[in-house]
Write a structure and sequence with these properties.
This protein has six helices and six strands. With 183 residues, the chain is of the alpha/beta class. It has one domain: Isochorismatase-like (Rossmann fold, 3-Layer(aba) Sandwich). The chain has a six-stranded parallel sheet with strand order 3-2-1-4-5-6, sandwiched between helices. Helix 4 links the parallel strand 4 and strand 5.
């Protein structure tokens, strides 16, 4: 029997509010993502949030993130969107686009005996896609919820979906994922 986990990527205050176009993009998919996470939690599927944060020594920590200060560990912009987090969720900090690069994600998934990942969040063409590819390289079945991902530009999301579908993941809508899990 498959063991699933859901990953969210960069669903944080600063990335979600970087500029008006990003806010509009997040507004489009956030309700679907929140609903999806609620169903997954009811099914006792672990939810893991990948939280982008830089050390002060990282050169990217000097660059403001839209109207927010740099994404330095502990800053307000690094916080997860409040509607995303529930007490039993797991939060893993990352310093690169992939949730696997220099993190404990693989170890956490192995401890949970997870073999299938459902990837959600933003930015589809970078963080979501790179995490999906790295999961595929590590032998996980990868599913991308196309109702629960986004990028600032719709064409970037579509391009990422096309690439992931061709290369490393099944790209499904929330209802298809519910059927798969219940099947």
């Amino acid at each position: 029997m498959k063991k699933y986990a859901v990953l969210t990527s960069n669903m944080q205050v600063a990335p979600a509010n970087k500029h008006e176009a990003r806010r509009e993009s997040v507004k489009k998919f956030l309700p679907s993502l929140i609903d999806f996470l609620g169903v997954m939690r009811q099914k006792e599927i672990p939810v893991i949030h990948l939280q982008l944060a830089y050390d002060e020594s990282d050169s990217r920590s000097k660059k403001p993130f839209g109207c927010y200060p740099p994404l330095v560990r502990g800053s307000d912009g690094v916080k997860l969107l409040p509607e995303m987090l529930q007490p039993n969720d797991i939060v893993i900090e990352k310093s690169r686009d992939s949730g696997f690069f220099n993190t404990d994600l693989d170890r956490v998934l192995k401890n949970l005996k997870v073999d299938s990942l459902i990837v959600t969040g933003m930015q589809a063409y970078s963080c979501v896609q790179f995490t999906a590819v790295d999961a595929f390289f590590r032998g996980y079945e990868v599913i991308v919820n196309c109702n629960a991902i986004g990028s600032t530009r719709d064409e970037d999301t579509e391009k990422a979906i096309k690439t992931m579908r061709k290369y490393c993941a099944s790209v499904l809508e929330s209802n298809e994922i519910y059927s798969l899990i219940n099947g």
